[in-house]
């Protein structure tokens, strides 16, 4: 059990949890910043969490849902207030409605996560600041302390699984709910480099080449909200073409972008008959490079299965490997 102390201060309206680990600080930090890792311990074993968004930067937002073994559902969010890379972060933690909006009928809290190096590894001090004594007592009554103990008791297993989180693992895919998929990969390069590689047409043409033997003659990308994006590939003879068109919905350089995407062909150049997806890309600095997380929302489950069956993940991995070897290593 990693928790070594729990301190309640009714005068300061705080609940402080101290936990010690044999893993290095960097490993512990990365576990909290990677959605595929934090959801393995953010929530008790009987109420595991799924993160549909996790932006580890000031002004960012995290959304998660915990589905209980008893059929119960609990939704929550973090609003990221401050981040000191590798040392601490502060969030506003609260409950969410079914649509992801804050549930104002329930308390929200300020939480500070402080990561410290120790002789044996690392220490995490989590301090929760409540708005009133009534809110503190309400959440303690709801089992907050016991929930944190159960949740943090799972972290050691995650930290020991070093092979599950490392540069060179390749692109990994996880299905979320009925209509989403999350692809993630650690890319050997800085956040700024990976962002630029996704938004500079000259660089994009060097690594997003499509199938073997194809080129990318059309590459129009806009980082501005409302801007249009158009990409097109063709084979060597030029008698086969396809591409994607979409719009930039959100852009927070160099950490997050949200775009739409529809596939076009010469027979349907405006992609009027193609289903549209929403692609949310988040870039987070981690040990070994940048964690790229792409959450794709499809119009329905059938469309998701159809697109994934085309070998999309293999194509993404080939492109990311090319990005590392031909762009970032240059």
TrEMBL record:
<dbReference type="Pfam" id="PF08327">
    <property type="entry name" value="AHSA1"/>
</dbReference>
<comment type="similarity">
    <text>Belongs to the AHA1 family.</text>
</comment>
<feature type="domain" description="Activator of Hsp90 ATPase homologue 1/2-like C-terminal">
    <location>
        <begin position="23"/>
        <end position="160"/>
    </location>
</feature>
<protein>
    <submittedName>
        <fullName>SRPBCC domain-containing protein</fullName>
    </submittedName>
</protein>
<dbReference type="InterPro" id="IPR023393">
    <property type="entry name" value="START-like_dom_sf"/>
</dbReference>
<dbReference type="InterPro" id="IPR013538">
    <property type="entry name" value="ASHA1/2-like_C"/>
</dbReference>
<feature type="domain" description="Activator of Hsp90 ATPase homologue 1/2-like C-terminal">
    <location>
        <begin position="190"/>
        <end position="325"/>
    </location>
</feature>
């Amino acid at each position: 059990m990693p928790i070594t102390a729990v301190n309640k201060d009714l005068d300061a309206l705080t609940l402080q949890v101290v936990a010690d680990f044999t893993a290095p600080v960097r490993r512990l930090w990365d576990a909290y910043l990677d959605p595929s890792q934090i959801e393995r311990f953010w929530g008790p074993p009987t109420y595991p969490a799924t993160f549909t968004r996790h932006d580890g930067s000031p002004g960012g937002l995290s959304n998660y849902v915990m589905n209980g073994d008893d059929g119960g559902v609990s939704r929550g969010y973090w609003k990221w207030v401050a981040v000191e890379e590798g040392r601490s972060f502060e969030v506003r933690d609260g409950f969410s409605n079914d649509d992801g909006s804050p549930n104002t009928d329930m308390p929200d809290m300020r939480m500070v996560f402080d990561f410290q190096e120790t002789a044996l590894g690392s220490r995490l001090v989590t301090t929760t600041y409540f708005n009133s004594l009534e809110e503190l007592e309400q959440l303690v009554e709801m089992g907050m302390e016991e929930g944190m103990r159960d949740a943090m008791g799972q972290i050691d297993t995650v930290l020991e699984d070093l092979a599950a989180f490392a540069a060179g693992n390749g692109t990994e895919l996880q299905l979320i709910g009925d209509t989403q998929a999350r692809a993630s990969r650690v890319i050997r390069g800085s956040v700024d480099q990976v962002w630029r590689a996704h938004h500079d047409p000259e660089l994009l043409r060097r690594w997003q080449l499509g199938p073997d033997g194809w080129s990318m003659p059309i590459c129009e990308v806009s980082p501005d909200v409302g801007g249009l994006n158009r990409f097109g590939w063709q084979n060597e003879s030029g008698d086969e073409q396809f591409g994607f068109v979409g719009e930039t919905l959100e852009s927070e350089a160099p950490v997050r972008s949200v775009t739409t995407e529809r596939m076009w062909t010469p027979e349907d150049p405006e992609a009027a008959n193609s289903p549209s997806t929403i692609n949310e890309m988040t870039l987070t600095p981690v040990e070994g490079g940048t964690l790229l997380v792409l959450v794709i929302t499809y119009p329905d489950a059938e469309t998701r299965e159809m697109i994934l069956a085309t070998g999309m993940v293999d194509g993404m991995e080939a492109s990311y490997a090319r990005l590392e070897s031909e762009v970032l290593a240059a």
